[in-house]
Structure formats: structure tokens, C-alpha cells
Amino acid sequence: MQIDNLNKNTDYEHVVYANCNNTEFFSKSTVIQGNAKSTGQKAHIEGLNSLIKYFKSQKKFEYYLLLDSDCFPIKKWTKKLIYELDKHNYDVAAPVRYENLNTFAHPCAFFFKKDILSNLYFDIMSFDEYLGKYEEVASNIKNFYPLIRTNKINYHPILFGIYNDMFYHHGAGSRTLRFRAIDDFKYYQKNDIEKFEKNFFNKLINNSKKEIQKLTDLRRILYV
């Protein structure tokens, strides 16, 4: 989005990386057709880097936001994030999922300045953190403004996250419900959490505003 004209609804472009053949839901968006055979982390990396490649070819805007398919804004966020980046001298703002014992910039809601576009990329990165070594889809950016989980109510320690009262992240919208931080401790029976996630998802798509308001201390949700 261009900083000189943030209030105009036409001052943006919505770009979708679709690793499926059916794109009828994105008729008003720019669609980048992906590889329908790719799955898991490989598909995630392909999608993120394909979007970055497209942004580089266009260079239209001062700021960019990458969103996972299970993540979306719940109130006006643009000016606030730009202010925080400038105030703290960062080029990137992104969730850091401390609740999953991570410290890297999670790509589910990855907001960044045009200045880093030429050097930005995503890959399977190796980390050695609280629970030992693991690999995760992440960017090459190490310094960033962290968006912290701000749920008023937590139905689950990792799923259904609200970050900085700006973004909702479902947590495992297109993969198996497994979480490094809690799986080894057997806090939840697999069948129980799968049933609960399905029930909450159905409520969410039927009345997202009502369900998200339950998770937050916001009196109003302002979709953008």
C-alpha cells in the first residue's frame, strides 16, 4: 500500500497464489497459478517466493503484506504498523509465536517495506531453540517488530490466535493439527482437538465477527 494515499480503497492490489485449479473465488484478484501437485512446506515456500517474485516485477507499492490462507485482518492495521516500523526502525512486522516456543518472524501475517524486497526470500530454515533443533518455513529476516498474541480468551494454547489485536490466525488451516510445543506433553487428545477445531471453524465461517470478538477485548471489529 502506498503511504501517501492510505485511505483510498483502490490504492492496493490483492494477489493470490493458488496451488489449485479452481480460482473462481478470486475473480477480482490477480492470480498467480501455482503447482497443484506441491504440498506441505514445499507448497508454502513456492507460494511465498512466487509472490515475492511478482512484487519485484511490479514494484508498485511502498509496503506489502503476506497472509497465509488461514490468516486475515480483524481491524484497521496499516497506519498502526507503519508507525511501529518507523518508530522502532524496523523493515518487517510479523507474529512471533512464543506460545509455540518460536522466536522467528512467522509468515502468516508478514508486513514489510519495499526497501527489503530485493533481498527477501523464504525457505526451510533450521532453528535451535527451546525444544531443540527443528525446521520451519521462515524468511531470511532476523530483526523485526514482533506481533504478540493478545487473546483475551484462549480455547487452545496455539490455535485461534489474535496478534496485536490486528490479525486472526487459525493456526493449522491447511495441515495436520500438530504443534511442537504441546504434542510431547499430551495436553490434548488428538480426536478431541480435531473435533473442537472443526466446530469452531464452522462457527467462524458463519459469523466471524461474533466469534473473533469472543477471543478479543475489542468492542468493535473493523474489517479492512
Give the topology, please:
Elements: E1 15-18, E2 30-33, H1 40-58, E3 63-67, E4 71-73, H2 78-88, E5 92-95, E6 109-113, E7 122-129, E8 132-139, E9 145-147, E10 161-163, E11 167-169, H3 180-183, H4 190-206, H5 208-215
Parallel strand pairs: 1-2, 5-9
Antiparallel strand pairs: 3-6, 4-11, 5-6, 7-8, 10-11
Any overview of this molecule?
The structure is a single chain. The protein has 224 residues and is of the alpha+beta class. It has one domain. 26% of the residues lie in helices and 22% in strands. It is built from 5 helices and 11 strands, in the order ββαββαβββββββααα. The protein has helices spanning 40-58, 78-88, 180-183, 190-206, 208-215, and strands at residues 15-18, 30-33, 63-67, 71-73, 92-95, 109-113, 122-129, 132-139, 145-147, 161-163, 167-169. Strands 3-6-5-9 form a 4-stranded mixed β-sheet, with helices on both faces. α4 crosses α5. The radius of gyration is 17 Å and the shape is globular. The two termini are 13 Å apart. The model is unreliable at 1-9 (pLDDT under 50).
